[in-house]
Specification:
By secondary structure, the protein is α/β, with parallel strands linked by helices. Helices cover 43% and strands 16% of the residues. A five-stranded parallel sheet has the order 3-2-1-4-5, covered by helices on one side. It has a four-stranded parallel sheet with strand order 8-6-10-11. A two-stranded antiparallel ribbon has the order 7-9. α5 runs antiparallel to α6 and α6 runs parallel beside α11.
Length: 255
């Protein structure tokens, strides 16, 4: 029995060591952030979409097959929204892990489970899940009616990650009755909803942008001034699953 235990321990040690020396490449900007934070020594290639992440250790491949192969990766991390053709070609040369893009808490559990397959990522994945669960419990103490406003008169309806989080908090997403995922709202519909809190997501600072125009309508501005309004930072709104804990804090105005 002791011998078997020793063998198991040695196998685990060698597995961790092998993983720690492997070369990983990310095909998704959100995975760039996650992998650099959780396994910086393994990551050799990133998308290059955020120039601040590029350095001698983390090279940008810009989604080009030849650039990725030049990095000699042992494994490539992608999401289900990455180019299927690129993934098929890469699988001829290396291992490719395709992660789900969570739009529900059930799919989030799948996401955590897949990441937990890797010894370097497992403790981070579990901690991420625990932090999110704790943040949801804390938010449940004060239920509110909210609506997310985005450029071009969009909001998040049902079957979206934002709606899942809002529902898990026992808050009410006032855009849910308008449909699934991205829903389009008129100014009149927004005014009639009378939320306890407005959440602004994805707006640029360029007031002149047509996509932002409806935000500056005098009537909507009047309501925003009278009602608590939270701005969700672009970095969080672009990768709400990776930054789930901070995303929830932003919704609550605690960030």
């Amino acid at each position: 029995m002791r011998f078997k235990g020793l063998v198991a321990c040695l196998f685990l040690v060698f597995s961790v060591a092998a993983e720690a020396s492997s070369r990983w490449v990310s095909l998704n900007q959100c995975l760039d952030y996650l992998l650099i934070d959780w396994a910086p020594e393994q990551v050799v290639g990133i998308t290059g979409l955020d120039e601040t992440l590029i350095n001698e250790k983390h090279r940008a491949h810009f989604g080009r097959l030849e650039n990725i192969l030049r990095l000699q990766p042992d494994r490539v991390f992608a999401t289900e929204y990455n180019n299927p053709k690129l993934i098929r070609l890469l699988r001829q040369y290396t291992e490719v892990e395709v992660l789900p893009q969570p739009s529900s808490l059930a799919r989030y559990d799948e996401w955590v489970t897949q990441l937990s397959q890797y010894a370097q990522l497992a403790p981070h994945a579990r901690a991420h899940q625990q932090q999110l669960e704790q943040a949801i419990k804390q938010a449940q103490q004060v239920a509110q009616k909210v609506i997310i406003l985005m450029p071009n008169q969009f909001s998040w309806g049902t079957a979206s990650w934002a709606d899942e989080l809002i529902s898990a908090m026992h808050w009410k997403n006032l855009a849910a009755p308008f449909g699934d995922n991205l829903v389009s709202l008129t100014l009149e519909e927004v005014i009639k909803l009378t939320p306890d809190r407005y959440l602004l997501e994805g707006f640029s600072r360029a007031h002149y942008a047509l996509a932002n125009e409806w935000l500056y309508h005098p009537l909507l501005q009047e309501h925003l001034e009278k009602t608590p309004t939270q701005q969700i930072p672009p970095r969080l709104s672009s990768c709400p699953v990776v930054f789930a804990d901070d995303y929830l804090k932003a919704i609550q105005g605690k960030l």
